[in-house]
Amino acid sequence: MNHIWLVKMRSKDDKDALLKTGGLRVKGGFCAIIDPIQHDVTVTIHWVGLAVSNESIRQALGEFGGVLEVSNDNWTVAGFEHAVPTTRVMRLKLKKGVVLENLQQLLKF
């Protein structure tokens, strides 16, 4: 059986110190320490030309954080499973101070 505990820390320094431990032992069991603030986001980019490489997308959005993955969206419609889509899916770890609203809505390649 697993339990989830939510702990509110008094200061950011206290939270950072607890996160650095990586985990604790509670009653002989391991307790993982996880920051609930999500820093990884998944972004869907529509209408990307077929000539635009995943590396170009990685470079264009690299200023907002570390690009973890860029891949083509897969179609699940019967008969179109092997079609090449113009939609890309990207996972991005945002830089400190960057929020989702900072991402550009229109990109030119």
- Give the integer mean of the pLDDT values: 87
For the record, give the distance between the C-alpha atoms at the N and C termini, rounded to a whole number.
Answer: 50 Å
Task: Write the CATH fold name of the largest domain.
Answer: Alpha-Beta Plaits
Category from helices, strands and their pairing: alpha+beta
Shape: elongated
Order of helices and strands: HEEEHEE
CATH class of the largest domain: Alpha Beta
Side-by-side strand order of the widest sheet = 3-5-4
Can you count the helices?
2
Report on the structure:
- With 109 residues, this protein is of the alpha+beta class.
- It folds into 2 domains: 1-35, no CATH class; 40-102, Alpha-Beta Plaits, CATH 3.30.70.
- Helices cover 17% and strands 27% of the residues.
- The chain is built from 2 helices and 5 strands.
- It has helices at 12-21, 54-61; strands spanning 23-26, 29-32, 40-45, 65-72, 88-94.
- A 3-stranded antiparallel beta sheet has the order 3-5-4, with helices on one face. A two-stranded antiparallel ribbon has the order 1-2.
- It is elongated, with a radius of gyration of 19 Å.
